Amino acid sequence: MSGVWARFEDVSIVGARQFEIAAHPSLRQAIADGIERGFDGELPSLPDEAEVYLLRAGGEDIGLTALVRDCPDPGSVAVVALAIDPDARGNAFATKALLALERRLRRDGVERVVTRVPRTNGRGLYFMLRVGYTPLPPVSVGDATWFTRGGSG
C-alpha cells in the first residue's frame, strides 16, 4: 500500500498494489453488485492498464475504485469501477470517493472524468444521475452507459 492519493471528508483513496479480490470477499460482493444485484458469476477482469485504489473510512477498507487513463479518448480518465462494501453502504462513501477522484484528477490536469455503469446495474445508473452526472452519447467500449459531470463534455 502506498500513502493517501486523494481524500474527501472521511474517505481516503489509497493506492493498491497487487490487489487480490479473493482476499476481500465483501469487496468481491461489492464489485458483483456493480454488475447486477445478485450477480454470482465470474467477475470480469479489470483492464490491464487500470489503476486500482482502495477506499478507506475510519481506518477500514470500505471499497475500491479503478481508473483507466486516456479512455474513452485522450485526455479523459474513466472510472471503470466504484464499489462499496455492502456493510458500508448508506454513508455517502461512493459520492465522497467520486468527488475526491475528480478533484485529484482535475488538479493533475485531466480534462474530463467519465464513468461507466453496466446497463444491468439500475442502482448504479441512478446513482450517477443523483451525483450530477449525465449520460454521454454511445461510446463503443463495452455494454455500459457512460457518464460525465454536467453535460456531454
Please provide a written account of the structure:
The protein has 153 residues and is of the alpha+beta class. It has a single domain (4-116), classed as Gcn5-related N-acetyltransferase (GNAT) (Aminopeptidase). It is 23% helix and 34% strand. The protein has three helices and eight strands. The chain has helices spanning 25-35, 93-107, 122-130, and strands spanning 4-8, 11-15, 51-57, 60-69, 76-84, 112-118, 133-135, 144-149. The N and C termini lie far apart (34 Å).
Strand-helix topology:
Blueprint: E1 4-8, E2 11-15, H1 25-35, E3 51-57, E4 60-69, E5 76-84, H2 93-107, E6 112-118, H3 122-130, E7 133-135, E8 144-149
Parallel strand pairs: 5-6
Antiparallel strand pairs: 1-2, 2-3, 3-4, 4-5, 6-8, 7-8
Strands, count: 8
Mean pLDDT: 87
Q: How many domain regions?
A: 1
- Distance between the amino and carboxyl termini: 34 Å
Tell me briefly what this model is.
The chain is α+β, with helices and mostly antiparallel strands.
Q: Keywords, please?
A:
153 residues, alpha+beta, eight-stranded mixed sheet, 3 helices
